[in-house]
Specification:
348 residues; alpha/beta; ten-stranded mixed sheet; 26% helix
């Protein structure tokens, strides 16, 4: 690893501290290096607040060193007025002459314009340093801008023999049949805090009565999305507790009341998932986690609307029940948790 890569690695580490807080903005970290020493660093902490470059530059105690320093940042500096002024203007004002960038910003307001502006004012600009790692960090941001839809994560837990739920009696209590341990459920809530939306179908909402929040982890609650074509989910269900924004996709009703919106859509159409992803794109939702049930998950798989799947395999044998979805892809990682296994699968 050369020195540019070393400092870019630090940018990526800093940027990751903003996970779950910056959307629809990307995750960005920045360091200022003088004579081989980091003299300033910062990251984009929250949407609407100062960008990483600003925080890094403002953390430098001796500003007279800035014209002789290099600014490292994992994403191209912005060159337009948004909620904050352009970072390229600040770089010019403080006299930084060398900027090293991980990846180009694909937002249409930037998309190479920041790099061009820096070069036009006399900066030496190096691009593509740890490009792959920089893009992986901002997989949600890049998917949103390049594919015009949210980054889609599928998640389920299955028994050793491949079922996501055992057979249930008609009068069975409405609650989840837990396959994983409480520690892995905490991990799932951590995941939820990092995504902007979460989705289940009506059967899951009825049978499990989930809250779909982050109560076991600190962080923002995602938008709850329930696919309920015939409005069968009871009004006293947890998803109607008004504690967080909730979207009910259905075929009968168009209304907003408090934190709940009913979105009317043809749910029987094969294009429903695509239409819903278009809706979320237009609402600037960059990521969503699909938590079931089987029919909903399989529909996403069959339509090709997914980017990664996180599959837990527990210790139980159900010997019958609801079969787990069928998916093909590349197993990226496999982790063991005291007899339980987490598989992360990406598309080929």
């Amino acid at each position: 690893m050369n020195s540019d890569e070393l400092y870019m690695r630090r940018c990526i580490e800093l940027a990751s501290s903003g996970v779950g807080k910056t959307a629809p903005n990307p995750l960005v970290g920045s360091v200022v290096v003088y004579n081989g020493i980091i003299i300033g660093e910062g990251y984009h902490m929250e949407y609407g607040k100062s960008h990483a470059e600003v925080n890094a530059i403002n953390s430098v105690k001796d500003r007279k060193l800035l014209p002789y320093s290099t600014l490292f940042v994992n994403l191209e500096p912005c060159c337009h007025h948004g909620k904050t002024p352009p970072c390229t203007d600040l770089i010019q004002q403080v006299g930084i002459k060398r900027v090293v960038i991980g990846s180009v910003d694909m937002h249409h307001f930037v998309a190479g314009k920041g790099i061009s502006k820096l070069r036009n004012i006399g900066c030496e600009v190096i691009t593509g340093v740890l490009k792959k790692e920089s893009r992986q960090l901002n997989k949600r941001f890049f998917t949103y801008h390049e594919k015009k839809r949210p980054y889609i994560i599928l998640k389920w837990a299955q028994s050793v023999d491949g079922f996501i739920d055992p057979e249930r009696a008609p009068d069975a209590k409405k609650e989840p049949n837990w396959i994983t341990s409480k520690y892995l459920r905490i991990l799932v809530h951590k995941w939820r805090s990092r995504e902007q939306a979460i989705m289940v179908g009506s059967n899951t909402a009825i049978m499990d009565d989930p809250k779909l929040n982050t109560r076991l982890w600190h962080g923002k609650n995602p938008l709850r999305i329930i696919i309920d074509p015939r409005l069968e989910v009871p009004g006293d269900s947890n998803v109607f507790d008004n504690s967080q924004k909730t979207l009910i996709v259905n075929e009968k009703k168009e209304k907003t009341q408090d934190n709940t919106t009913w979105l009317k859509m043809d749910c029987s159409s094969g294009s429903m998932i695509g239409q819903l992803m278009d809706y979320l794109y237009n609402q600037e939702y960059q990521s969503i986690i699909i938590e079931g049930g089987r029919i909903l998950l399989q529909n996403f798989i069959d339509k090709g609307f997914w980017d990664e799947a996180r599959i837990f395999s527990g210790k139980q044998f159900f010997a019958g029940g609801v079969k787990a979805p069928l998916i093909e892809g590349k197993t990226e990682t496999m982790e063991e948790f005291h007899g339980e296994t987490l598989y992360v699968i990406k598309k080929y």
